[in-house]
Write a structure and sequence with these properties.
Length: 421
């Protein structure tokens, strides 16, 4: 088999809420989960990471402290459309997705956004509202309600409980999405105070130009996330209710380099070394002002060293600085070119973020099966009728990178959102 004909695994990341919300002609029908998965299958995507939630959960959880869309005590007050909440309350979309996938030779991973709690009163669980003491702190001392601190064992347990429950429900694996939303650890007292006591220095004053001392601080923070990964692995391995001996854990994260990952709180190399992850999914997310070298190569090398599959990642939604959804900026040939540039030896598949939207875009379903091989991608890019139908426009140049890029821009030195969002 030549490199051009080698088959790539096509994987989607789907949110049933976005299946409705991102497409103006969609409305809940009562069989939305099945329709969403069938649309993926038609497009050649038989592996789908299904939404578990962010802060509010998108499936019917039995966890006593969980807040679930359509089942919570404040219907209509948390920022979701009433008809979408009703849809999610009527059936557990995760259980329906698993059942429908097994009947159609598909695989379902449960996907969790790893630190995206929004703000009090908006898409936020009651548990998060009741624990303001865990909210992260910015370098300037301001509270960051969108992130909770992983140095707190209670925060780690909350995430692990959800992920373990999803595995026990029957997910084929788990996708931990660390593109939502770096940085994962900031300047909470649970981080800062022990560092001050041990090092006799205030980490708040550290800058990137301080070199090794700055990176030591980043390593110290990342060690808490590594401890979370260890605790998760133990919880999955020790669960008597998971239907497989080892639940695969895939991690999606920015591909801006191992040093930038460490600044975000992610020690990807350590996770691989300790056998805490089973699949890598690097993704081009522009979030850190000082790091703009996006390259899958270091992660391909980690995959080779530790025997882990590496799937590159692209987004169906165009980059938007103020909103998400269906708008100008889509072009399947721009996406095909981006994927072709990423498909090199060592890449085993493609993860399509927001596939719930992509499989519904006019004309896309017929083209997507060609993304499974380099030769198929080259055929799309060489087709005269497609070049005429999808001419390149300047507003499409960033199409395919994570559409949250530029939405929350941080600086390593100021460690704050430079957009002020």
């Amino acid at each position: 088999m030549t490199e051009n004909s080698r088959k790539l695994r096509l994987c989607g990341i789907a949110e049933l809420r976005c299946w409705i919300n991102h497409i103006p002609w969609q409305y809940p029908t009562g069989h939305d989960t099945e329709a969403c998965l069938d649309a993926h299958r038609v497009a050649g995507i038989n592996n789908v990471a299904w939404e578990l939630g962010r802060s509010v959960l998108a499936y019917h959880s039995r966890l006593p402290e969980a807040t679930c869309w359509g089942l919570h005590e404040r219907p209509g007050e948390l920022g979701e459309r009433p008809e979408v909440e009703k849809m999610l309350g009527e059936r557990c979309s995760l259980r329906v997705a698993i059942r429908h996938a097994r009947a159609n030779s598909m695989n379902i991973y449960g996907r969790m956004c790893m630190n995206r709690y929004y703000r009090p009163g908006f898409k936020r669980s009651r548990w998060a509202d009741l624990h303001p003491e865990f909210m992260e702190i910015g370098k300037d001392g301001r509270v960051d309600p969108s992130r909770l601190c992983y140095a707190a064992p209670e925060v780690r347990r909350e995430r692990i409980g959800i992920l373990r429950e999803a595995a026990e429900i029957g997910c084929d694996g788990l996708l931990l999405d660390f593109c939502r939303q770096p940085p994962f650890l900031r300047f909470h007292p649970a981080l800062v105070n022990p560092w001050r006591e041990e090092h006799g220095a205030d980490p708040v004053g550290l800058r990137l130009s301080d070199g090794q001392q700055y990176m030591d601080w980043c390593q110290y923070r990342a060690d808490f996330m590594t401890e979370f990964m260890r605790e998760l692995r133990r919880a999955l391995d020790e669960s008597p209710k998971t239907w497989r001996e080892r639940v695969p854990v895939q991690v999606r994260f920015p591909n801006d380099g191992l040093e930038a990952n460490l600044i975000a709180g992610l020690d990807i190399a350590r996770w691989c070394e300790e056998g805490l992850v089973d699949e890598l999914a690097p993704s081009e997310l522009h979030w850190l002002e000082e790091y703009r070298d996006f390259d899958d190569t270091p992660y391909i090398e980690l995959g080779r060293r530790y025997g882990l599959p590496v799937t590159t990642s692209v987004s169906f939604n165009p980059v938007q600085k103020d909103k998400c959804g269906l708008s100008r900026g889509h072009n399947p040939l721009v996406l095909a070119r981006r994927v072709l540039d990423k498909c090199r030896p060592g890449i085993s598949g493609i993860v399509f973020f927001q596939s719930d939207t992509g499989v519904q875009l006019p004309g896309y379903a017929d083209l997507l099966p060609n993304f499974a091989t380099r030769s198929g991608l080259e055929a799309l890019l060489d087709a005269p009728e497609l070049k005429k139908k999808y001419p390149f426009r300047d507003d499409e140049k960033d199409y395919g990178i994570d559409h949250h890029s530029f939405l929350n821009q941080f600086s390593a030195d100021t460690a704050r959102d430079v957009n002020g969002v």
